[in-house]
Write a structure and sequence with these properties.
The chain is of the alpha+beta class. It contains twelve helices and 16 strands. It is an enzyme of class 2 (transferase).
Length: about 425
């Protein structure tokens, strides 16, 4: 069952016993609502606009965001969910706790909860608020304030997909254009056929990124959740993947230029560490290169906003050769795990895109690391830079430097 329906009981879904007096009163309230709308210069037909045009419709916004948006009693919004492979609309209301009600459809194609039925969901919600009648008698929930879409909630129809530029874990990645501004952007899409749980995981990256602003973190422009396919819309970073850049265009870069890339990545990770965000998948493949070779941290699909995160459901899809021993052995993640990964990222940068632990299987690399093996310095890497890599690869997490220390060390080397 979708988490949105966790508070819905069978009693909430059953129609009430018809009471002629109540029906008469409901019809009277409906007529009063129509007159009120006309006095405000809004014709009843305008309430039949598509759901996308309603400020309180949030598309397939995940439950976690809905709970965050509904803060005071009477706050409400409408979203879409899937139950038993069927699309359903859900009214979410804050009333003591967060309550969620499926919008019922009558045989005539009208919409209702327990009271009157209306030709459109917009009319139903407008009446439900104006009448002061609870959504269900059992819940007592009243509609008082519509929670509008936030600025980062984009309309899918405003995103024009252009060229496919990659493929992610959940779907294709496109270069796209925002019709409203003409801005070119990068868009991650989520395959429609994926289970709801995976779609929520997909949107987790957007939920994390929308609160971050830093030159070395890829910038979120918005999330398009009005309809399928859902999309994460981000700034288009001109140079693409750092790993591809290193392998194809870094042959003529100086050691100082490579060090500047390490400093950029350290700056972004220092910022994330200050926000208690554990990236969990830091690697050259998950960084982007922008103008003037600036490096930006990207791909937050595995990230967690916690000081410590324990994995209890196995270690599938874990990037073994980039992951710290304590995470592999005990499922325990902290920012110091990202420090280990950052050491591997530094190695990738100075080796200009070579594969870590080349020729070793994941299990062999893991075994050798546990026995004390560390990758040798890449060709042309200075002793002080390699010494920092080795500090990042300390087996005991507490012996590794934090990112604010790493940034200071690299900045000092850079400015010599």
């Amino acid at each position: 069952m979708d988490p949105f329906e966790m508070y819905i009981t069978q009693a909430d879904l059953l129609p009430p016993i018809p009471i002629p007096r109540r029906k008469k009163r409901l019809k009277q309230l409906q007529l009063e609502l129509e007159l009120e709308l006309e006095r405000d210069g809004v014709s009843v037909s305008e309430t039949e606009r598509s759901l996308v045009d309603q400020e309180w419709f949030h598309g397939v916004l995940p439950r976690e965001e809905v709970v965050r948006l509904l803060r005071a009693d009477g706050d409400y919004l409408v979203r879409e969910t899937t139950r038993n492979h069927a699309r359903q609309l859900v009214l979410s209301v804050c009333w003591g706790q967060h309550k969620h009600f499926i919008v019922q459809t009558t045989p005539e194609g009208h919409y209702r909860f327990e009271g009157a039925a209306f030709p459109s969901v917009a009319e139903l919600i407008a009446w439900q608020r104006a009448s002061g009648v609870p959504v269900t008698a059992r819940s007592g929930a009243l509609l008082r304030r519509a929670v509008p879409r936030e600025t980062w909630e984009l309309n899918n129809d405003h995103v024009q997909l252009l060229d496919k530029i990659g493929r992610g874990n959940f779907g294709d990645v496109y270069k796209a254009r925002l019709k409203t501004t003409g801005q070119e952007v990068a868009v991650k899409t989520c395959r429609v056929a994926l289970p709801e749980e995976q779609k929520r995981t997909f949107l987790q990256e957007g939920r994390i990124l929308k609160q971050y602003q830093h030159p070395n973190i890829v910038r979120l422009i918005g999330i398009a959740v009005q309809k399928q396919p859902i999309m994460i819309v981000m700034e288009l970073v001109s140079g693409g993947s750092l790993l591809t850049f290193l392998r194809t265009r870094a042959s003529n870069l100086s050691s100082r230029s490579l060090l500047a890339m390490c400093r950029d990545a350290a700056g972004g990770m220092r910022y994330l560490e200050s926000k208690n965000c554990i990236h969990r998948d830091l690697a050259a493949r998950n960084c982007l290169v922008g103008d003037d070779n600036i490096v930006k941290i990207s791909d937050f699909g595995m990230s967690r906003e916690e000081e410590e995160y324990i994995v209890s459901g196995g270690m599938k899809q874990i990037p073994i050769k980039w992951t710290a021993p304590e995470a592999l052995n005990f499922g325990k993640y902290t920012s110091l795990c990202d420090v280990w990964s950052y050491g591997v990222l530094m190695w990738e940068i100075f080796s200009k895109g070579d594969t870590p632990y080349a020729g070793m299987s994941n299990s062999r690399a893991r075994e050798k690391i546990d026995n004390g093996f560390r990758m040798p310095a890449p060709e042309g890497c200075s002793e002080d830079v390699y010494a920092l890599m080795l500090r990042c690869w300390e087996y005991e997490p507490d012996k590794r430097p934090h990112f604010h220390q790493i940034y200071t060390i690299i900045d000092t080397i850079y400015n010599r």
